[in-house]
């Protein structure tokens, strides 16, 4: 997968972007040459809890922060063990940063540590998204909120463009991959189901990609050049890795049973909204190869066009909030769920319905990730080998570029031509929104400013433009 060669430059960028709390060490621990003391479960829980509140910067920034803390400062893990875990997580669908937190928590303290690390990584973001969803529904119609969102929406289009550019520059190296990207763009525009697009890309990758396939293992300097870690390269697999079949049955089978029972209870409750969200977000969780941006078009199409849970402007707001808050970007599903539940109340009050829908969306989105790690990590640790999936995954990544570009075009149409009847005409073009979006794109791609400053500046520009227009 070449995971580390993409993450390593992000480590440097992330360190420059974080100021004060986000860049300062989580705890005042100075690296020394002495072997580290094994952390207790309580110490690890404190670390994961604090990480959940400062994990800004998207998956690259979050992984960079975990590397800086776990490998460089605390030396709880060696570089090789960290990369070994990262490589496995990069092969999986779902949020890789949250999966990496779950994996390293499991590696250090077994099942309890893994579940706790994964939950603490997403819990602050879940609570924050529910609170922001409530504020949006209560105050979103206020003129001040509308003016701020006027500037935020074109900045979100720029964020999508940035994601497409970054992934495309890494992925579209051959004619085959460029053709796959173009084909996926056209296929999604013609409303081809997203799973079929990914499946077709994988088949093309297997059949036509002739690039050499190598397993991804970063070169690690000799141990003599670095202080030893608590779990070092030569540390034997943990005791929990010995029970591979048991883990597969307990967590693989148990996770499946838990998901089926929860879904059956929702079906029996006759709350169609909750059961449809459960089924949809389970499918979405299994299709998120390439990160959250890869599945956003799928989520947007279903949430806006198929189910009518949210509107396109609300989806744009969800993306802006996901980019500017800690936690996985895919956590925007909880915001989408909250808004859908609030606008289609089925539990007496909009607030209760919104909270229930947000919890359902989050549960079924993250359940597969916990299952993949807890059931698969013992096998990965025991064998220290990764499957040779480079060709189909390269093709899927190329398809994701096309899907992201199509998402950007759809969002741009809604932002730049809010009047659907004038779409594509100069008379209906929102020139201020175009200028704000262009400025945001330059700030992100050319000047490499952080997401939060760009969103904040765009919001203030939107407020200024709307104030002058009145």
UniProtKB/TrEMBL annotation:
Domain of life: Bacteria
Record has Transcription as a keyword: no
Membrane topology note: Multi-pass membrane protein
Cellular-component GO terms for this entry: plasma membrane
Transmembrane segments: 115-136, 148-167, 179-206, 247-266, 278-296, 316-339, 351-375, 395-417, 429-445, 451-469
Broad class of where this protein is predominantly found: membrane
Location in or out of the cell: Cell membrane
Keyword ATP-binding: no
Pfam families linked to this entry: Chromate_transp
Matches recorded under InterPro entries: Chr_Tranpt_l_chain (IPR014047), Chromate_transpt (IPR003370)
Record GO terms (molecular function): chromate transmembrane transporter activity
Similarity section: Belongs to the chromate ion transporter (CHR) (TC 2.A.51) family.
Name this protein carries in UniProt: Chromate transporter
The species this protein was found in: Rivibacter subsaxonicus
């Amino acid at each position: 997968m070449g995971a580390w060669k993409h993450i390593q430059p992000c480590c440097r960028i992330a360190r420059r972007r974080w100021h004060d709390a986000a860049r300062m060490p989580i705890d005042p621990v100075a690296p020394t040459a002495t072997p580290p003391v094994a952390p207790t479960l309580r110490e690890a829980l404190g670390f994961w809890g604090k990480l959940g509140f400062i994990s800004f910067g998207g998956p690259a920034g979050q992984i960079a922060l975990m590397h800086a803390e776990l490998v460089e400062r605390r030396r709880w893990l060696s570089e090789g063990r960290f990369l070994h875990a990262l490589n496995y997580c990069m092969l999986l669908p779902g949020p890789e940063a949250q999966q990496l937190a779950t994996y390293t928590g499991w590696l250090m303290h077994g099942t309890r540590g893994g579940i706790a690390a994964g939950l603490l990584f997403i819990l602050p973001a879940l609570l924050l998204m529910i609170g922001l969803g409530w504020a949006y529904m209560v105050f979103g119609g206020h003129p001040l909120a509308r003016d701020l969102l006027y500037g935020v929406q074109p900045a979100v289009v720029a964020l999508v463009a940035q994601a497409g550019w970054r992934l495309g520059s890494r992925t579209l190296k051959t004619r085959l991959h460029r053709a796959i990207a173009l084909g996926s763009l056209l296929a999604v525009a013609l409303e081809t189901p997203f799973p079929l697009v990914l499946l077709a890309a994988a088949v093309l990758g297997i059949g036509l990609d002739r690039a050499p396939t190598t397993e991804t293992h970063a070169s690690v300097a000799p141990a003599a050049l670095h202080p030893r870690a608590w779990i070092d390269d030569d540390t034997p697999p943990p005791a929990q890795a010995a029970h591979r079949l048991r883990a597969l049955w307990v967590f693989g089978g148990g996770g499946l049973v838990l998901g089926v029972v929860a879904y059956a209870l929702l079906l029996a409750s006759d709350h169609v909204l909750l059961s449809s969200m459960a089924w949809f977000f389970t499918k979405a969780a299994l299709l998120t190869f390439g990160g959250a941006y890869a599945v956003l078009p799928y989520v947007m199409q279903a949430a806006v066009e198929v189910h009518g849970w949210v509107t396109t402007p609300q989806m744009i707001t969800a993306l802006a909030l996901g980019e500017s808050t800690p936690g996985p970007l895919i956590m925007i599903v909880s915001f989408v769920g909250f808004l859908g539940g609030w606008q289609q109340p089925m539990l007496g009050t909009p607030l209760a319905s919104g909270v229930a829908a947000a919890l359902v969306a989050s549960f079924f989105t993250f359940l597969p990730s916990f299952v993949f790690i807890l059931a698969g990590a013992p096998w990965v640790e025991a064998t220290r080998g990764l499957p040779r999936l480079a060709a189909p995954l390269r093709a899927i990544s190329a398809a994701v570029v096309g899907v992201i570009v199509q998402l950007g075009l759809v969002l741009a149409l809604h932002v730049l031509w809010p009047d659907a009847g004038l779409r594509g005409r100069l008379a209906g073009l929102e020139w201020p929104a175009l200028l704000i979006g262009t400025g945001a794109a330059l700030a992100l791609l050319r000047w490499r400013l952080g997401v939060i400053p760009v969103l904040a500046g765009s919001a203030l520009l939107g407020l200024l433009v709307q104030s002058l227009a009145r």
